[in-house]
Amino acid sequence: MSSDRPHVHGPTIDGQTRCIHYGTALDVIAIEFACCRRFYPCHLCHAADAGHAAEQWPVSQRAERAILCGVCGHRLTIDEYSSAGSCPACAAPFNPGCTLHWNLYFDA
Ligand SMILES: [Zn+2]
Ligand SMILES: [Zn+2]
Ligand SMILES: [Zn+2]
After folding, report:
1. pLDDT tens across 22-52, in order?
2. What's the rounded Cα separation, in Å, for the pair 8 and 16?
């Protein structure tokens, strides 16, 4: 495990960024929030722990490596994540349901 892997905040339940809200086999990413630059597994974790409203990443910052693969620690840019069904480094499949929540994290 790489030492520069960012700390994931909130009520995680394992070392692959699953949380008390999203804990299926496919829930293996954490997202860096634009407002506080902290990684959380999901928007509910941020709401419970951060103490402020979440902000969304603007379209102009899609090159930020704001997505953490909880399996291998690889960081994807928002742009890469928008079209990735799995981790480009370790091939772990991502939850396709996350795209339903895209606008909680990113401006469309
Ligand atoms: Zn925040
Ligand atoms: Zn959560
Ligand atoms: Zn990975």
Report:
1. 999 999 999 999 999 999 999 999 999 999 9
2. 10
